Amino acid sequence: MHDLRMKTSKLPKVAVLGTGGTIAGSGASSTQYAGYRAAVTGVDELLMAIPPLKDVADLESEQVAQVASQNLGGATLLHLARRVNFWLNQTDCTGLVVTVGTNTLEETAYFLNLVVKSRKTVVVTGAMRPSTSLSADGPMNLYRAVVAAVSIQTVGLGVLVVMNDQIIAARDVHKMDTMTVDSFRAPVFGILGWVFDNQVRLYKRSARTHTCDTEFDVIDLNSLPRVDIVVGHQDDSGVAVSALVEAGAKGLVVAGAGSASLSEAMAEAVLSATRKGVVVVRAPRTATGIVMRNMEFDDALHGTVAGDTLSPAKARVLLALALAHGKQADEIQAAFDMY
Ligand code: ASP
After folding, report:
1. What spacing in Å lies between the alpha carbon of 146 and ligand 1's midpoint?
2. What is the mean pLDDT of the chain?
3. What is the Cα–Cα distance from 188 to 170, expressed in whole angstroms?
4. Pairing relation of β-strands 166-169 and 193-196?
């Protein structure tokens, strides 16, 4: 396998968009791994700290946001997606990297996977340790993200995540651990490959529809509708579901036990929500697994949507986008079966 683009004399252009997170975090000392401040260092400074990048790509950068990723809400996501599409539309731009906080990396990556309108490579990366720490993982993650972004092999694969040497499809990636550098994995579908040194080694691709082939874009979207997540439990009274409907949620993801089964009281609250026009998606409370339609729960009776293998956080992204595009529950079920 050869990365042909890297063999030409003129370096490919890559845009790097910064949004904050731990990769841009700063600690009081080089041994402080927790309790540091996220989203402090600018993306330019992060790139300047990686001199070997000058041999990989001709870099452009843009600070799109500077936030801890738990605060990267709908307005910032829409702005980010527009900037990604802007850069990829430049004919001389080969690929793009987005740096994000890892806490919600999977939602941002999946959102971009659904709304980016280009086959050029988009890589999302971050870091588990702040930029000031001993053995910070950010510089190598960012270096490898750029290597992946200029590789001919990654074109048309949808949005990719590069963390800890691994290349993972945006749809499949899951943050598995709160602290460790190997937190990002694809527990059900597996990683797509690795980046080692300047080599991309790919072994498979995601079969789910993405980027140019989805029915979603951000061109006419000014905001995303309110979609909340409720985690159900053995004794769930349904009060949280009813309260969120009352508060104006247009969609709800209910993270149910096992195959997203719900207590009787929660199921009743869900039925009343769907009768009011709120779209409710069932997603698994377990770490992995599939939620199939009418299995362990009567979706037809309750007007609910089965969330397939999406985590509650990713189900929330797809539901919000589908609602923003005016989709009804049956069309939303089709979207969960496709994306
Ligand atoms: N608080 C950070 C964030 O912005 C955590 C991280 O990036 O790892 O998500």
Report:
1. 20
2. 96
3. 13
4. antiparallel
**CB of 101 shorter than 6 A to ligand 1:** yes
What would the two tokens of residue 13 be? 């252009």
Q: How far is the CA of 103 from the centre of ligand 1 (A)?
A: 5
Tell how far the Cα of 102 is from the centroid of ligand 1, in angstroms: 5
Is 22 catalytic? The answer is yes
| Element housing 46 (H / E) | helix 43-48
In contact, 17 and 87? CB cutoff 8 Å: yes
How many residues in total does the chain contain?
Answer: 339
Q: Is the pLDDT of residue 157 over 80?
A: yes
Structural domains for the chain: 2-213 (3.40.50.1170), 227-338 (3.40.50.40)
**pLDDT digit string, tens, across residues 36-65:** 888 899 999 999 999 999 999 999 999 999
Name the residue with tokens 């527990």: 187
pTM above 0.85, yes or no: yes
Single out the catalytic residue among 19, 22, 125, 274.
Answer: 22
